[in-house]
């Protein structure tokens, strides 16, 4: 194996490892989107009711979105979180005298992940919004597909190292290309889904939203996957081409 191709292969492996770490961290954290809102009063029965509804497994999209808007919520692919005063009842915990703000999270169940989105969030009588429904499903399925493709590509790359051959690296490069497309698709679906949600549910006054660092990790992971793919394919293809030319030269 030529040193140029070996170097390209090593760089591609490093890029692949970094993108895998970024993608795994992105999937496992809850900061894909963050809301910033003024501090809310914590003593009203309405607020306590909202927090209770937020933690319920039966909370619909409008219910938990309203709470996210009001209480500095953050949302990931699998969980939603809010910052609440510590002296509020939560899951039947005892009331304390502390007024410190703590973060509480509730996971999206599989049923919620596959639940249909309605034309008017929270209103089941308005019909199913197919576009938002499939955008939501794609945004949490595609990252796992991407991660799986990279892991499978890593196994093929390991075989290439054991065999001391770059030929299997072509398959690794193709898998990384598909993984990058899945990551890019997931990011695009998430952005589209958030924008469509905010068209249906307008943000209250003095409330702002922005994409968080978990979302940024996914955005960075996609180009790393594409670069790793290009290096894998280039190294394998060029090495095979030079080997064929050298073999033909020897025969001649």
Task: Write a structural description.
This is Claudin domain-containing protein 1. It is found in: Membrane. Keywords: Membrane, Transmembrane, Transmembrane helix. This protein is α+β, with helices and mostly antiparallel strands and 252 residues long. It has a domain at 3-29 and 110-241: Up-down Bundle (Butyryl-CoA Dehydrogenase, subunit A, domain 3). The protein is 62% helix and 10% strand. It is built from seven helices and five strands; from the N terminus they run αβααβββαααβα. Helix 2 (45-55) crosses helix 3 (61-70), helix 5 packs antiparallel against helix 6 (169-200) and helix 6 (169-200) packs antiparallel against helix 7.
Give the topology:
Elements: H1 3-28, E1 33-36, H2 45-55, H3 61-70, E2 74-75, E3 79-85, E4 101-107, H4 110-113, H5 130-163, H6 169-200, E5 208-211, H7 213-251
Antiparallel strand pairs: 1-2, 1-5, 2-3, 3-4
Helix pairs in contact: 1-5, 1-7, 2-3, 5-6, 6-7
List keywords for this structure.
252 residues, 7 helices, Butyryl-CoA Dehydrogenase, subunit A, domain 3, alpha+beta, CLDN1
CATH class of the domain at 3-29 and 110-241: Mainly Alpha
Number of strands: 5
Please report the distance between the alpha carbons of the first and last residues: 22 Å
CATH fold field value of the domain at 3-29 and 110-241: Butyryl-CoA Dehydrogenase, subunit A, domain 3
CATH architecture annotation of the domain at 3-29 and 110-241: Up-down Bundle
What general outline do the C-alpha atoms trace? elongated
Structural class: alpha+beta
Poorly predicted runs are 89-98
Would you list the SSEs in sequence order as H and E? Answer: HEHHEEEHHHEH
């Amino acid at each position: 194996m030529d040193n140029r191709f070996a170097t390209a292969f090593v760089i591609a492996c490093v890029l692949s490892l970094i993108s895998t770490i970024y993608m795994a961290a992105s999937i496992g954290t809850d900061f894909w989107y963050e809301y910033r809102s003024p501090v809310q009063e914590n003593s009203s029965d309405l607020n306590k009711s909202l927090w209770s509804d937020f933690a319920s497994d039966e909370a619909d999209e409008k219910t938990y979105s309203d709470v996210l808007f009001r209480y500095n919520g953050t949302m990931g692919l699998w969980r939603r979180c809010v910052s609440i005063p510590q002296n509020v009842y939560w899951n039947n915990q005892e009331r304390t005298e502390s007024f410190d703000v703590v973060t509480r999270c509730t996971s999206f169940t599989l049923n919620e992940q596959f639940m249909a989105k309605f034309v008017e969030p929270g209103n089941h009588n308005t019909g199913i919004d197919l576009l938002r429904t499939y955008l939501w499903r794609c945004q949490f399925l595609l990252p796992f597909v991407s991660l799986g493709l990279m892991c499978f590509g890593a196994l093929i790359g390991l075989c290439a190292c054991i065999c001391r051959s770059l030929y299997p690296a072509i398959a690794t490069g193709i898998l990384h290309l598909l993984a990058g497309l899945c990551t890019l698709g997931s990011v695009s679906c998430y952005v589209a889904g958030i924008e469509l949600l905010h068209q249906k549910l307008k943000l209250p006054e003095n409330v702002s939203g922005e994409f968080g660092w978990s979302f940024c990790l996914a955005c960075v992971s996609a180009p790393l996957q594409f670069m790793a793919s290009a290096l894998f394919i280039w190294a394998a293809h060029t090495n095979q081409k030079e080997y064929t030319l050298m073999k033909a030269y020897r025969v001649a």
